[in-house]
């Protein structure tokens, strides 16, 4: 079946540090890949997505590239801010599937 | 645009009491609706999904049930809550494929 594996958290960084949150997936065919962000006490909101191999999703300074050869969709940001502190979820969906498959989430804490 | 309303935002209930969480959707018709649970420090677990009125699919056996009495209404219920039912419950709308999922603000349930 489909699955998503994320690096364990929490990830603690100083402001302006470089961020990488690893995400790998298992799925047959060609899933669409997503990163969602959850700020404290809130629901999830879409951060970025990529729908085919080699696509790069980007938003708010975050980027992730769909790598089919390594089945990965790592999230990166060149310079994090305190306001980026949140939980980040990697997810996939497939045509015909009726739900997203989420990773376990990675908590990011950015210190001033 | 699509909007999901979920209430209440927080709830403290004693063990053995009933539960009813409500989710309503605006801006779309015949949506696919989902209930997820996020236990403390853990990822998202899909509990139920519904593709139409009266149609409910359960992903995991548990103490909870779901109902879809109207096209844009999705209700999560329990007759007798357990301590293990504590968590953050999220309602979501997802059209499938490479589209974005929309989440409600969540309900934090504490069973005491």
Question: Can you describe this structure?
Answer:
The complex is a heterodimer of chains A (112) and B (112). Chain A is mainly beta. In chain A, 0% of the residues lie in helices and 50% in strands. Chain A is built from no helices and twelve strands. Chain A has strands at residues 3-6, 11-14, 19-21, 23-26, 32-38, 44-50, 56-59, 62-65, 75-77, 86-93, 101-102, 106-111. In chain A, the strands form three sheets. In chain A, strands 2, 5, 6, 10, 11 and 12 form a six-stranded mixed beta sheet that branches. In chain A, a hairpin with a 5-residue loop joins strand 5 and strand 6 (44-50). Chain A starts with a strand and ends with a strand. The model of chain A has no long low-confidence stretch (mean pLDDT 92). Chain B is mainly beta and 112 residues long. Chain B is built from no helices and eleven strands. In chain B, strands 2, 4, 5, 6, 9, 10 and 11 form a seven-stranded mixed beta sheet that branches. Chain B is globular. Chain B starts with a strand and ends with a strand. The relative contact order of chain B is 0.33. The mean pLDDT of chain B is 90. Chain A binds chain B through residues 32, 34, 36, 41-46, 49, 51, 89, 93, 95-100, 102-105, and chain B through 4, 6, 32, 34, 36, 38, 42-44, 46, 49, 51, 57, 90, 92, 94, 96-98, 100-101, 103-106, 108.
């Amino acid at each position: 079946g489909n699955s998503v594996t994320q690096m364990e958290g929490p990830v603690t960084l100083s402001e302006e540090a470089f961020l990488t949150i690893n995400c790998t997936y298992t799925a047959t065919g060609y899933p669409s890949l997503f990163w969602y962000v959850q700020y404290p006490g809130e629901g999830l909101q879409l951060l970025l997505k990529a729908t085919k191999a080699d696509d790069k999703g980007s938003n708010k300074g975050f980027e992730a590239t769909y790598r089919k050869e390594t089945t990965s969709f790592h999230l990166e940001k060149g310079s994090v801010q305190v306001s980026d502190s949140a939980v980040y979820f990697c997810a996939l969906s497939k045509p015909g599937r009726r739900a997203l498959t989420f990773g376990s989430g990675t908590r990011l804490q950015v210190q001033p | 645009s699509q909007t999901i309303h979920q209430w209440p935002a927080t709830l403290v209930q004693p063990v053995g009491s009933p539960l009813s969480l409500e989710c309503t959707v605006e801006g779309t018709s015949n949506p696919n609706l989902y209930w997820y649970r996020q236990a403390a420090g853990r990822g998202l677990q899909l509990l139920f999904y519904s593709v139409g009125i009266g149609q409910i699919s359960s992903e995991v056996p548990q103490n909870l049930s779901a109902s879809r009495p109207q096209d844009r209404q999705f209700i999560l219920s329990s007759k007798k809550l357990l301590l293990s039912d504590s968590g953050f419950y999220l309602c979501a709308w997802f059209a499938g494929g490479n589209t974005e999922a929309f989440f409600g603000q969540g309900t934090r349930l504490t069973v005491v």
